[in-house]
């Protein structure tokens, strides 16, 4: 069970930076649909649980060090080659978005130049990738219990200090910008774009399990924790819609309103989320080309980190706007391939 929880924690750590970091993602895919957002969160929990379990088990069965083998296994040579290229591109693109996101967080909290925040994130990510894969998985999993604790406090506070009625909050919520035509598509797209980036590292994480059952249980646990986090963040923002409406980083806004100290704690949590995702995605990108034991691995980490830092100057908002919607549709193809692979096996 300890290994399963570690795998589950690492799965959560992979997703949180790209899927939770600002709270804006949950706002656009769930909270913006009002009370239906809660139903969407439950759908997302089921999706993450099933896909997390399936991907981790595939990783264990194939004992792969890269997503390439898994993609070719579930999608065949021709379609698999296309998915492989697209996943590899998005791994790098979202890593760059995480570097830019760290810069945006430093600017909002400390008023520092975003370049300093991005450089800080690049340096600690590159240094982490010099460790072996088991240490990397442990580091990715570390932030999960901390994040759960902070979000539980914020959600409880938001519910008990709600100033407006549910009907009034619901009306405000429905005036927010959303990323999908309805709550169901919002939930499916959210799962889809997170799986598109998470599939690579999840296969590597699954391959480290001691058995297929341990790998599957880890993916399932990770999916359930992700669902709980979505629910907590969604409820917290819905209850404080009068405060977070129109804000770029709504969760940080709630935390700062509670107490300035909690705002700083939440900012640290945000950086922790961005860090864990950047580590997982950059590692997945590099081992697609260079095995971790290869002599050129460490120079490759430094070179790709430097390129990622320069690319982060494009800006966090621009990167998220361009990359995430494309990833959502790519993710649907991966999900369909995984689903058919699971049915065929049975």
TrEMBL record:
InterPro entries in UniProt: YkvI-like
Keyword check for Transmembrane: yes
Keywords, ordered alphabetically: Membrane, Transmembrane, Transmembrane helix
Transmembrane stretches, start-end: 33-60, 81-109, 115-133, 140-160, 180-205, 217-241, 261-287, 299-320, 326-344
Domain of life from the UniProt record: Bacteria
Keyword Cell membrane assigned: no
PANTHER family referenced in this protein's UniProt entry, alphabetically: CONSERVED MEMBRANE PROTEIN (PTHR37814), MEMBRANE PROTEIN (PTHR37814:SF1)
Protein name as annotated: Membrane protein
Organism, as annotated: Ureibacillus sinduriensis BLB-1 = JCM 15800
């Amino acid at each position: 069970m300890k290994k399963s929880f570690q795998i589950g924690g690492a799965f959560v750590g992979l997703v949180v930076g790209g899927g939770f970091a600002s709270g804006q993602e949950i706002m656009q895919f769930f909270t913006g649909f009002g009370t239906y957002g809660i139903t969407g969160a439950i759908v997302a929990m089921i999706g993450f649980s099933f896909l997390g379990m399936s991907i981790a088990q595939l990783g264990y069965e194939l004992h792969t060090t890269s997503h390439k083998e898994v993609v070719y296994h579930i999608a065949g040579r021709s379609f698999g080659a296309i998915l492989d290229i697209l996943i590899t591109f998005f791994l790098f693109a979202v890593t760059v978005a995480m570097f830019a996101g760290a810069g945006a967080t430093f600017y909002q909290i400390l008023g520092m130049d975003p370049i300093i925040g991005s450089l800080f994130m690049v340096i600690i990510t590159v240094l982490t990738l010099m460790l072996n894969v088991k240490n990397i998985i442990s580091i990715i999993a570390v932030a999960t219990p901390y994040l759960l604790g902070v979000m539980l406090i914020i959600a409880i506070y938001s519910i008990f200090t709600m100033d407006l009625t549910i009907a009034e909050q619901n009306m405000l919520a429905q005036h927010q910008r959303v990323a999908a035509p309805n709550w169901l598509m919002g939930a499916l797209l959210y799962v889809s774009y997170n799986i598109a980036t998470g599939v690579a590292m999840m296969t590597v994480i699954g391959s480290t399990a001691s058995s297929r059952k341990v790998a599957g249980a880890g993916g399932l646990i990770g999916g359930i924790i992700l669902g709980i986090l979505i629910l907590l963040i969604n409820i917290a923002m819905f209850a404080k819609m009068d405060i977070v409406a129109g804000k770029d980083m709504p969760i940080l806004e709630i935390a700062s309103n509670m107490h300035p100290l909690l705002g700083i704690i939440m900012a640290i949590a945000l950086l922790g989320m961005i860090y864990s995702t950047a580590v997982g995605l950059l590692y997945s990108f590099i081992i697609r080309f260079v095995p971790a034991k290869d002599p050129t691995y460490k120079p490759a980490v430094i070179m790709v980190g430097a390129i990622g830092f320069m690319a982060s100057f494009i800006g966090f908002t621009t990167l998220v706007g361009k990359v995430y919607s494309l990833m959502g549709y790519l993710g649907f193809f991966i999900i369909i391939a995984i689903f058919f692979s699971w049915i065929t096996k049975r």
